[in-house]
Amino acid sequence: MQLLAQCAGASSTCGSITSIVTTCTSRKSTQPARSSTPLSLSRAPQAAVEAAWLEKLSKLPSRLPVSQLYAGRGFGLARSAATSAGARLYVLSAGLGLVAADHRVPVYGLTVSPGHAESVGARVQGDFDAALWFSALLKGPHSVQWSDTFARGRGRVLIALTRPYADMIGSSLRDLDPSFLARLRIFGASLSALLPTEVHCALMPYDARLDAITPGTRADFSQRALYHFVRAVAPSVGSQNSEADAEAVRHALVAVTAPQRAQRVRQTDEEIIRLIREHLRFQSGIGSVLRRLRDQDGVACEQSRFKRLYGAAVGEGALT
To answer: In this model, does residue 13 exceed pLDDT 60?
Structure first.
């Protein structure tokens, strides 16, 4: 009951959208130098890696506004949603923290996801704690605090999350002031197990039926859901609190049937590289090879992973 009261407490002030927050993307308009990635850091305990990264950020030149650094459909949808809503756009970055889209930042490369060349966890001796990493980033030279996203109005604050980011920022959302929590709306797939119970009331109940309304990939699900909410749901809700918004989402999906997804098999990096090299004997282009891998071979491969493996297959980078 207390959690529901926290989420509904600001119903009279949530009639608009103040801010939109989305995750950063691995696709960037400019690729970073090795010196701007965790590859340039020594292996050390996490606290030392945090300090070394923040020191590096303070010295790297700020070259581009955040809005010009990131690319990809998901980021484009979040940017369009912010424009449509008249809201300020922020980006959750595993390398920078929480950054306003008009803020100039360095060109960097860093991820908290394992198995990537730019994974910061690989530089940490012992277990890597993503929540502690984000807490350190919030004190960095480019990050603002969560309060900044709530300070420029009295409306909703919408956040598009993936599972790694939910794990990274969940504890910081739990600690929000109840008046902020009441204005929070979270979009993403299967996030409840990764987020503290205190913020579950902010989750909007989108599911696979969204694919029939706004087709896309798993990678851009959260941004597609947020975009649909901004354009099709929020304008129709009379009394704006989290439960009213959630009920409006359910109503928008009630008559929709989820499309059938192709069942694809997972393969190892080495198996996928072998398939890529076979296909490159008869065709060229990263997009056409990915489509053949998915549609003809029936192999499951997320786009950022495929880009890495494609580079290894054609000799542009080492398999890490």
So the answer is: no
